[in-house]
Amino acid sequence: MKRNAWSPRTGRLGAFLLAFTLLLAGPAGAQELEGFWDDPFKDLQADVEQAESEGKAGVFAFFEMDECPFCHRMKTQVFTDPEVQSYIKENLVTVSIDIEGDVMMTDPDGEQLKEKAFAFDRYRVRATPVMIFFDTDGEPAVRYTGPTHTPGEFIKLMEFFVSGAYDEPGMNFFKYKKQ
Fold first, then answer.
1. Which conformational region is residue 138 in: left (phi greater than 0), alpha (psi within -120 to 50 degrees), or beta?
2. Which is nearest to 100 in space by CA: 60, 75, 68, 76?
3. What is the pLDDT of residues 10-38, one digit of tens each?
């Protein structure tokens, strides 16, 4: 008996593939985050100085790579949220770091190195996304590995850093979220 090319099984598979593609594309499709990243030159020393002079809490560094579906989701479904954009612009300087990148950058201490060396050698970033919040002394204060589930959860993560709650004894983001 010849099988129909459009059986319930292939129908479910096709529906799954369509849903997965739409999930990756997100509501904004493949749109770039125009104006979201403050530092195309990847000079974290200057970013830290800028944050301090503007009265911001610090620098948000987003470690990513091109083929990462979770990075893509963060960029199309979380970072595009108007509340996220408003909060981050008010409180942080932003920079994106390609963990496989050969672009030269400047670390918070002024040393120049390739993006991939900064990510791998300095911060042991092996999977993406990784988000590191640097304080106005250029020190990494909060590190979060993986995507947040919602824009609201990302706002909570930023609040955890901006409020200084990360510095309280015994406090971590998961405890902070539950409060």
1. left
2. 68
3. 455 444 444 444 444 444 433 457 889 99
Structure tokens at 160: 């955890």
Quick one: which H or E segment has residue 162?
Answer: helix 151-162
Half-sphere exposure of residue 115, counting CA atoms within 13 Å on the CB side?
A: 18
Phi then psi for residue 125, to 5 deg, are: -80, 115
What are the structure tokens assigned to 133, written together? 């919040």
Structural contact between residues 76 and 27, judged by C-beta atoms closer than 8 angstroms: yes
User: For 76-122, how does the pLDDT look when each residue is reduced to its tens digit (9 = 90+)?
Assistant: 999 999 999 999 999 999 999 999 999 999 999 999 999 999 999 99
Identify the CA nearest to 139 among candidates 156, 122, 154, 155: 122
Contact by Cβ (8 Å): 133, 44:
no
Of the candidates 151, 159, 97, the residue with the CA atom closest to the CA atom of residue 105: 97
Q: Nearest Cα to 51, choosing from 92, 107, 106?
A: 92
Residues 6 or more apart whose Cβ sits within 8 Å of residue 158: 60, 84, 87, 88, 91, 92, 133
Domains of the chain: 34-178 (3.40.30.10)
Residue whose token pair is 């470690």: 63
